[in-house]
Design brief:
single chain, 474 residues, 12-stranded mixed beta sheet, 16 strands, 20% strand, feruloyl esterase activity, polysaccharide degradation
Length: 474
Amino acid sequence: MKISTQMQSQSLWMTTALLYSFLSLLTLSEAALSQGCTHPHKSPIDWRPKANESRIFSVGHDPKNPREIRVHVPPKYNESAVMLPLLLAFHDKDMSTAEMEYQSRLSDPAANDEFIVVYPTAKNNAWQSDISVRRWQKKEPQQKNVTDDVAFITQLLNDLDTIICFDDSRIHAVGMGTGAGMVHLMACDSQLSTRVASFATVAGGYGHPSKADHWAKCFPARLPIPIMSIHGDEDKVLPYLLNEWEPAKSRWSVPTWLEAWSEKNGCGEAIGDSQNAMDATGTAVTVTKLEGGGWMSEGEAFGGGTWRMAKSCPKPNSKDTYPTKKEEKEEIPLEVKSTDGEPNGGGGRKEEILTSNPADFTILHYRVHNYGHGWPTLQIKGSGPGKKVSRFFDATDLVLDWFKIHEMPIEWAGEKPKREDVADAKDKYSSKSEMKMETKEESITGEVKSEKETSLGEEKKNAEHARSENHSEL
């Protein structure tokens, strides 16, 4: 029996009981490859949205406490035999997945034509990392009303592995606000650090246990961990620096958090004299060697509207080898070129050019001047001598570009399977399974569809209002 057109249009929502019936309880080691590429018939429903469409599913292995995820797939998923990367996007406090999708534009085909995006929903409007409730340090079973979101995300990836075809070596995570704190916890987790290739945070809040070592609960099994950060220096919600009354609170300032990850990644302290140079984008930077064998570049970017810092930290040769301090491994990748583009000569003025590959960056940070709390997409006016040209700063493009140049190192990534044709896979769904979905949908679509129709418009209005407020701050 085939599902009617009406029932197909109503299949935006799936019940917990249905999804629970076919999501296998895999261990992380069993999910080395995306099984959705080679065994799509395991899914009894056609979960896929249409091109440039997002759908919401209820997920979780506890039918009494379901979790919602919003899923978006780009047109390439239906048109290409190439496996696509998977991106997990975590919303801020008091933000829905629809608002996160709208503000970040991660589902906008003009910005993203490649990434499958999954937007998980925080339980009770708070992630495990939420600073206000400080739940992330309370994992003991006796604690009530505590959600282990790290375990949830680990299981979610296992489940997605069975129903979506994606490149398992290109899983990435980005979070905004308190969602960025969730990304931090994922990077610290021994399992997820070997599953997620790279991480990015926007306007992030990063908590740590009070009166305890900052990294007492941070045990990534893979180092270094590539992390990108974007933060406005006028953020009043999660300030760039700690307020005077905040030391007693359980939060890092952004510079402290960046330095802590730098130390964790084995970057080492700056040594020797700094050198003035130009990077590949034409930005004037100061380049300094690091004692761990890497280097750091700093400078004003986007016409002086942001301060950018990049660190390239030494990479280990194997799972058992980690970078050590005070071990000089390579020189800063500088090349002398003239302003007419000729290397080591020519008629123009000679300059030092930083010729590094952005894929070598371990830490990349943008401090956006005069910007508040939010996801920055704005026109930056240059200031100072020679900086009158406006530049467009788009966090979405920067985040996606960061993910595009990173994938899981070969020693951690499994063999990539060839993708099976989507059309052939769809034919494998049994009519019995389709009938089951139709019955379930009849019992929930009336209530859920009504809620969707009335709420999505207001969520977009709220998101538009939030974006306009941040634009007005410049």
